[in-house]
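Dear colleagues,

As part of the handover before I leave the project, I'm documenting each prediction I ran so the next person doesn't have to rerun anything. This entry is a single chain, and its sequence is reproduced below.
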Amino acid sequence: MIVDVVMPKMGESITEGTILEWHKKVGDAIELDEILLEIGTDKVDSEIPSPTAGILVEIIGEPNQVMDVGTVIARVETDADSAQPIESKPVEEMPEPEEPQVEEKVEETPMYTSPLPTSRPPAISGEKKFFTPVVNKIAAENGVGMDELMTIPGSGKGGRVTKLDILAYLKTRTGIPAEATAASPKLAPPPSLSPSFTGSEARVEMDHMRKLIADHMRTSLDTSAHVYVMTEVDMTTIVNFVDANNDAFYQKERYSLTYTPFIVQACVKALSAYPEMNASIDGSSIVYHKNVNVGLAVAVDNGLMVPVLSKCEELNFLGLCRKVRDLAVRTRNKQLNPDELQGSTFSISNFGVFNVTMGTPIINQPNVGILGAGAVKKRPVVIETNEGDTIGIKSMMFLSLGFDHRLIDGASGSQFIEAIRQNIETMNLENLI
């Protein structure tokens, strides 16, 4: 029996998807729930499992083709003895608007993991090749440079290198570069696939996610009147709490306690006190949101995503810890539903995990505010007491607040970030976990 594979509906507002990469080719056997292809929407890239076991007999949608939800994109024959390849008729591709050339990446500061290089390498000697994010990631992790990557024979359409091709190549590869085996420092930059230049420049086509990020960031700058204020926060009490309780927390939860949930909790409390910062603008109307839905910027292999912690006001501290962990893991593993990337009312970008002291992240539309958290570092500071001033060593962190001046004035923005600072420094840590 032939089973149709259709473009899945990835969320309530999703009406179409872009085919990014097929993990199988016509004639290949596939198991139930084995990854068949990757698709991209305007919210997220996702790996799609096969709805049945059998033989892939027809591929209708080609890479980079945009297809409506519910459209048949492939067919699988469940009876292996009856499987015969089917010649596909071309599907009329939906027209895409012409995209302007982008000379420079516009990127919000990420959190958690460092992004990998763009997934479309430049042409070599006039030849154009498309490499998927999966192939690029495997190449980067194994020290396969661009010149070497271009020599791998591909079994995909038009000679495209697939995941199976590069994995097979690595099994027979000899002479692994030294940099691929050297121990990497905690915050070392990812391996780079060096571009090959023709003359004085190399032109690289943006991948699907990078185009979405570029459009979203440019739209935000064109929409909101960005203003920034900064403050310094004493994190010493929280740092000491984490150091003292991390082992017990790990034994219970099986992951480490980080500073992010403390920052989120302080923001949630401040947002409840300053509802205009939890609002959005719709034309000439101000829309106040009942729930506090915090978007957390998470860096993935080839870009940035902002999953949403919904109804944070209903979560206690341990609930926030678990939710932050769950969303971060599922974001990196491409297990998010596109609906989990919508509905944020405020956003946080924690670039401190990369040892960055301060930054000015771009507002995540349609929010009117975004908080940037820098690295926690020990510094000498003046300590004021009734007996006089002294100098001591404290664990300090810079916070930056970007807000939309169309709605938030400087006084309100300053009061809001001051509230966050006070919430962090005076947080009641007793029985927190």
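The radius of gyration is 24 Å. The chain has three domains: 2-82, 133-205, 211-425.

All the best with the project,
I.
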